[in-house]
Amino acid sequence: MSHKTDNTGFFRKVYRIVEQIPYGKVTTYGAIAEALGSKGAARMVGWALNSSKYNLKNLPAHRVVNRNGLLTGKRHFGGSEVMKTLLENEGLQIEDDRIINFREHFWKPLAGDKL
């Protein structure tokens, strides 16, 4: 099996989890990696989300942030304020690119959830 095929399967599983993030909630790259049984693969989750912009227009990737609630992926949304605006439209408060009350808005994906 090629490395590219492995990535494709992993990426597809990432997308399935991201599709489940509830409106008004966020999760982290690391939480997604852990739910997939790949703890430590947070960066690969980020790569998957970055590549999703080419084929998955309705994926709510704006709901994925870093472990501290920072909007680290904001540059991938076609403007530095797009991710912030999308999250604010869902009721989250953002200050200095960080989600206020991050833990209150955190959603933990469960291993095996509709993957």
Q: What would you say about this model in short?
A:
Helices cover 41% and strands 7% of the residues. By secondary structure, it is mainly α.
Features:
115 residues, mainly alpha, Arc Repressor Mutant, subunit A, two-stranded parallel sheet, two-stranded antiparallel ribbon, 5 helices
Helix and strand arrangement:
Elements: H1 3-19, E1 27-28, H2 29-35, H3 42-52, E2 64-65, H4 82-89, E3 94-95, E4 98-99, H5 102-105
Parallel strand pairs: 1-2
Antiparallel strand pairs: 3-4
Helix pairs in contact: 1-3, 2-3
Describe the structure.
With 115 residues, the protein is mainly alpha-helical. The protein has five helices and four strands. 41% of the residues lie in helices and 7% in strands. A hairpin with a 2-residue loop joins strand 3 and strand 4. Helix 1 packs across helix 3 and helix 2 crosses helix 3. It starts with a helix and ends in a 10-residue tail after the last helix. The N terminus is likely disordered.
